[in-house]
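Tip: read the tokens left to right.
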């Protein structure tokens, strides 16, 4: 969701990459929730963070959006230029895949997570614009 919103709200202002601790398929209910607000992430796929690092990717800023338990497992990301490590911001949000219930109940639980991620990105974009 974070990648989708950052691309949608910031355009080409940033080079955006998204990855998780593990790779896998996107949650179709997350795709649906994002489509409800006009952001199409259906072509996105869950990449593994370590794969980006192994491929030699370098970063200025890394924003983690996982819960606290998962955040402890995040690797350090190499920085660009003279920065040894990328600046890391942690914004803890619940994992939508941990929600239980019917699809409609899960979707109802995803929406506030989606909206909170969007709000946090909007604030961060305003702060980085100055």
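Filled-in amino acids:
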């Amino acid at each position: 969701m974070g990648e989708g919103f950052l691309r949608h709200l910031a355009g080409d202002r940033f080079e955006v990459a998204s990855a998780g601790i593990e790779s896998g398929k996107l949650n179709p209910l997350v795709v649906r929730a994002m489509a409800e607000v006009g952001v199409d992430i259906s072509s996105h796929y869950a990449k593994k963070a370590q794969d980006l690092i192994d491929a030699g990717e370098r970063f200025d800023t890394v924003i983690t959006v996982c819960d606290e338990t998962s955040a402890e497992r995040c690797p350090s990301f190499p920085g660009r230029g003279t920065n040894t490590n990328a600046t890391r911001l942690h914004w803890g949000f619940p994992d939508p895949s941990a929600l239980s219930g019917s699809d409609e109940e899960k979707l109802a639980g995803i929406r506030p997570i989606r909206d909170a991620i969007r709000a946090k990105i909007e604030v961060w974009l305003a702060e980085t614009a100055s």
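The chain has one domain: 2-129. The CA atoms of residues 52 and 64 lie 14 Å apart.
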